[in-house]
Design a protein that fits this description.
The protein has 240 residues and is an all-beta fold. Helices cover 2% and strands 35% of the residues.
Amino acid sequence: MKRRRFQGTLVLFALVAVATMSVGVTLALYSNRPTAETNTFVAGTVSVTSVVTGACAASTNNMAPGDSASCTLASTYGGSLSGYMAVDVFVATQKSTAAGGGSATNLYNPTDGTNEAQITVSSTTPTVSYVTASTSFGTAVTCPGSGTSLDGNSYTTYSTCYLLSNLLVSATAFASGTVTFTTGISLPSTEPNTYQGSSAVVVLSAHAVQSKNNAIDCTLGGTSPTAGTVCAPAGSFAWS
């Protein structure tokens, strides 16, 4: 929702008096223009900036059963208007028939809750759990191409992709503050050979929307939704 910028100018026009004297006398126009009044209206802002504070690329390469790793992302709210914040979580996964054989399996495999990669997403300030090992991402989505994914990268070469949108950070609007998200991944010690060489990418994207004239209302939880759950807009509430 955007606020427009308006400019109003108030100009007062004085009556003009014209006097005609005798031949050879110059005509005179009496006029006056008071100082113009300009009124400027400035729209407020909703701003979220994110910084990777704990990269995990090195520790998540060449993982073995029993390994675990985590990465952190700090998202700071800095708008002049208070706003509700949410996070989207995207997972792209693929298998490797070269390493895992003919029965190769995607590293993230919701149909195998015992052996698949265990992915978690949580935050501090506030302390919220968004994704656990048992979280259902639902039906797989079409793997997005360049410019259409959360991070702009192409994932069309991956086998399967999943997306959870609008996971609520807090039912209370933010005026300021930093939320630190932690993404964790672990490989069960029981993971079989079919998972060898497989991979997964987890992308987090925080976003916010103004709370003024946009009271929160979610399909699940109504006007008192629970942090960490998907807030699908209901009523007049909208995320953009």
